[in-house]
Amino acid sequence: xxxxxxxxxxxxxxxxxxxLGTGCSASSDDHKEPMAATVTIENQWASAAETGMAGxxxxxxxxxxxxxxxxxxxxxxxxxxxxxxxxxxxxxAMTMRPKAGGLEVPAGGSRELIPGxxxxxxxxxxxxxxxxADVSLTVVFEDGxxxxxxxxxxxxxxxxxxxxxxxxxxxxxxx
Length: 175
What we know:
Blueprint: H1 2-31, E1 39-47, E2 54-62, E3 68-74, E4 78-88, E5 94-98, E6 103-105, E7 110-113, E8 119-125, E9 134-141, E10 146-154, E11 162-163
Parallel strand pairs: 1-10, 5-11
Antiparallel strand pairs: 1-2, 2-7, 2-8, 3-6, 3-9, 4-5, 4-8, 9-10
């Protein structure tokens, strides 16, 4: 008889573990929702440019319960798309450079992409960006998911920062 009790107790423990494991995996599946599925970009616009590079700005909102991290992008009119930040250099001058680790959009929060701050850069432009037209790009997240974006091109002189390239193909001055 004692062996039956041990077997029943072991079975009960295994059943509880199985239930807890199922509950945990269901919860984990909720967090595996693609980052792009919970993110929107509003009031987006891109700076006009004849050549080189152009900034993309707007408000990014994340309605999800986990952080979303933008790491790059793609656009048919650019050689590549980078996430940039503007920081003071050793002399105090504002310098634009690729943002290591990408751009975090907090769970339930938002992030501003602004001239003179964090933004996306269309690098090595393949054609001029004329005011009033639209530019298409795809924002790529850390988990590999992506979000298509269309931004209106606007006249903008720039935020007077210098550009410090983080890799090959800097593409020229910031506009």
